[in-house]
Amino acid sequence: MKKNLMLLMMMISIILNVVLVYKFFYQGEKVIIKKDSRSEIKMTKENREYVMAEMRGFLESVQKINDGIAKNDPNMVAGVGQQSGACKINTIPQGLVRSLPYEFKQMGFHTHELFDVMSKMAKQKYDRQEIQVKMNELLNNCVACHQTYKITAEP
């Protein structure tokens, strides 16, 4: 009788442990994601790919500027204007600008302009702190844009 009771208790313990391990390690909790409140910008797949590549280029430029500031190297900072400045505006695909909301265009053009300003500052009168202030302004544009908009491709 004692053996049967011990065997029963051990089986209950094993089953309980298996259930607990499943519940806490494998099943997890269901997470409810709040509805995305950003404005959706619909564009062609090609234009979306262009905008996404442009944003990746911005991020690479930000990294290079930060590296230039950290190394106190104005030449690194100055070179970024060629990569992400207003000169890139001439490469915009036809029809893209027309599909963008006015505020999005403002942020985009202002971002290109800030890259040019930082490049010019590095060439003319290099001041790490002043360039960092412009970098923060640029990053505020990035954050505002990503909080406000999402870009989807039209089917």
Automatic annotation (TrEMBL):
Protein name per the record: Cytochrome c
Gene source species: Chryseobacterium daecheongense
Protein keywords: Membrane, Transmembrane, Transmembrane helix
Record-annotated membrane-spanning stretches: 6-25
Keyword Transmembrane: yes
Domain of life, source organism: Bacteria
InterPro entries, per the entry: Cyt_c/b562
